[in-house]
Amino acid sequence: MPDAVATHVDDYLCTSYEMDSDNPTYITAFNPAATSKDAHHILLYGCTEPGSHQKIWNCGEMAYSNDSSKKSYETGPTCASGATIIYAWALDADKTELPKDVAFKVGVSTPIKYLVLQVHYANIDKFKAGQSDRSGLILTTSPVPLSKRAGVLLLATDGAIAPYSLEVFEVACEIKDDIVMHPFAFRTHAHKLGLVNSGYRIRGEGDDQEWTEIGRRSPQLPQMFYPIQSDVPIKQGDYVAAACTMFNYQSHPVRIGATGNDEMCNFYMMYWVDGDKILEDGFCTSSGPPQYYFGYDRNLNVDKIPENAFRIPPPPNGPAPGEPLQGDHHMTMQHKTNPRKRQNRFKYIF
User: Fold this and answer.
1) Catalytic residue among 1, 19, 40, 333
2) Domain count, the chain
3) Residue 329 falls in the annotated catalytic set
4) Amino acid 136: pLDDT
5) What is the pLDDT averaged over residues 244-266?
6) What's one GO MF term for it (predicted)?
7) Does the first or last residue of the chain, that is N or C, have fewer Cβ atoms within 10 Å of its Cβ?
8) Do 265 and 119 lie in a common domain?
9) Tell me, what's the pLDDT at 321?
């Protein structure tokens, strides 16, 4: 950020960088230069056209144009066209390096003509003290073409969770592009109610359907991209799915939304392909509970969901023994999502 000044908690501010129009750029690593004391999270988008050509603009849902007593920025979307997510960071996550011969290709012949950095500010104490902010990312790039092109698929839901209740947010999409994706890293994101997020490749039909785990992790841990332990190639006709288990210990319902008091159910899958063709649409979304569950899709056999899908994993992807989760809840769960019957079986340990 070029000396940004946030004036409200949950401000989303963006800045853009135009890519080289003559030569492609190959991004091979992301090194955060930020702290969770200031930034709730950071997203790096690729855009065909940025949401504004101002040096900094307000790219969140909340605009404060009537707040004349404080510095305000022009309001606009993150991208005016061609939005794709390249990288995400939160909770003081460490550097992410791509595998050998893998890179994000941007500029020139790609739809990514601009990189847009979006910062969600969680704290404004430094701004009240007269300081500005330069949170951001240090990118490692290569001018040499690499044989494998990287992409990101984001699975996310809408929805809400009732007071004092456990809920599972679910999303699934069929892969329709004629490509073979090789997931190599995953990232989970939720706010204070999130217990565990998991992602799956679904292949086959009916009793022969197979759910293969891509990644599973507590979103209360540093939210960097973590290596996927086994090769789970995803091809045309497969489904990808994600589930986020949350416990609302509060006396009011909580919706998916943009502020720190709302929730988010996000599962990011970073993948590579041989050649130059990646997913045309890097977003998979659902309306979430109570409008959508896996069981509403007749192509998904919920009886094949792995038994550990909704369990918090042991370290390193879950909290260390004795370490409390957000809200001081410890939980394991056995769950089969069949909303047509709504017979959920949960086992709690508090």
Assistant:
1) 40
2) 2
3) no
4) 96
5) 94
6) peptidylglycine monooxygenase activity
7) C
8) no
9) 61
Residue 1 lies in a domain: no
Q: What is the pLDDT of residues 213-234, one digit of tens each?
A: 999 999 998 888 899 989 999 9
Do 297 and 217 belong together in one domain?
yes
Is 118 an annotated catalytic residue?
A: yes
- Can you name the residues that pair with 240 across neighbouring β-strands? 173, 201
Range of the domain at 112: 12-145
Tokens of 265: 């159910």
Is 41 labelled as part of a ligand binding site? yes
Q: Are residues 180 and 107 in the same domain?
A: no
The confidence score (pLDDT) of residue 273 equals 97
Domain of residue 182, CATH code:
2.60.120.230
Q: List strand residue ranges (DSSP E) for 113-161, in order.
A: 114-121, 136-142, 148-157, 160-161
* Same domain flag for 127 and 205: no
Query: Which one from 1, 189, 269, 270 is the annotated catalytic residue?
Result: 189
pLDDT in tens, 202-214: 999 999 999 999 9
pLDDT at 62 over 80: no
Hey, what are 304's tokens? 């094949």
* Domain closes at, from 130, 145, 160: 145
Look at residues 87, 119, 145 and tell me which one is the last residue of a structural domain. 145
What pTM was estimated for this model as a whole? 0.84
User: Based on the domain organization, do 110 and 25 belong to the same domain?
Assistant: yes
Q: Of 1, 118, 331, 333, which one is the catalytic site residue?
A: 118
- Rounded (5°) CA angle 210-278-235: 20
Q: Do 131 and 190 reside in the same domain of the chain?
A: no
Cis peptide leading into residue 143 (ω within 30°): no
Which domain CATH number covers 118?
2.60.120.310
Q: Please say if the pLDDT value at position 107 is more than 80.
A: yes
Q: Which of 41, 223, 270, 335 is catalytic?
A: 41
The one-letter code for the residue type at 186 is F
SS3 296: helix
Nearest CA to 267 among 348, 173, 144, 135?
A: 173
Residue 200 pLDDT > 50? yes
Maximum distance among all Cα pairs of the chain, rounded to whole angstroms: 63
> Measured between alpha carbons, how far is 204 from 210 in angstroms, rounded to an integer?
6
189 is in an annotated binding site: yes
Q: Are residues 126 and 221 in the same domain?
A: no
pLDDT in tens, 139-154: 999 988 999 999 999 9
